[in-house]
Amino acid sequence: MTSSPYSTASLKSAYGRNRWNGLQLATIDPVANMPEIRTLACIDLLEVKGQSAPLLVLSTDVRTPKVSQILANPRVQVLWWFGDTHEQFRISGVASIVAAPGTPTYDSLKDKINLPGDVDLETKRVEVFNAMPNYMSHYLRPTWGTPLRKAPHSETWPKVTLPTENSSDEDKLHYEEALKNFSLIVIEPVVVDYRSQQERVVSKKLDNGLWENEPVVMP
């Protein structure tokens, strides 16, 4: 096939036919030298200027182990399986953390990847956070994975809401603290192994930004 199966159009088509944005992200724990995998939601696909292959946008709490693992070794792998249509995207790539400016993990992705001029990653981070009001409070909880014996009285944990002109100073502070913990994970794919019921194609990103596609034996 001449076109890569990994593109914004193909991913949106697969998502539209399956309605599933959950994927598995694997990182390397530098201490144990072991892979760690977890399920996350793909929030968005960012178009890259002059290329057909999008960047994957995920989200997480900046305090979680996956963030320190990515900072130590940005090479990650994603497995995105669409069960209804039996399509699988296994994506190897390089991840960057988009954290709140001024925090130790702040990383200016725009200096590394040629994004369209209208893409402001900090604006994107805030927009994504504001679009998930039911989950805002998660980012002001004790660090995810903390043993409950060390974080008792969950009924007293602060509730976070989108601030309004009527919000109290305390509520506004809770929002700002939660937003500070919220970060994006942006993944630049370099190798994509795509499989459907009809074909399997391995696509590799070349130095010139174009993709080379190689049909391979299934499965």
TrEMBL record:
Pfam families: Pyridox_oxase_2. GO terms for molecular function: FMN binding. Residues 17-98 form the Pyridoxamine 5'-phosphate oxidase Alr4036 family FMN-binding domain. It comes from the Eukaryota. This is Pyridoxamine 5'-phosphate oxidase Alr4036 family FMN-binding domain-containing protein. It comes from Gloeophyllum trabeum (strain ATCC 11539 / FP-39264 / Madison 617). The lineage of its organism: Eukaryota, Fungi, Dikarya, Basidiomycota, Agaricomycotina.
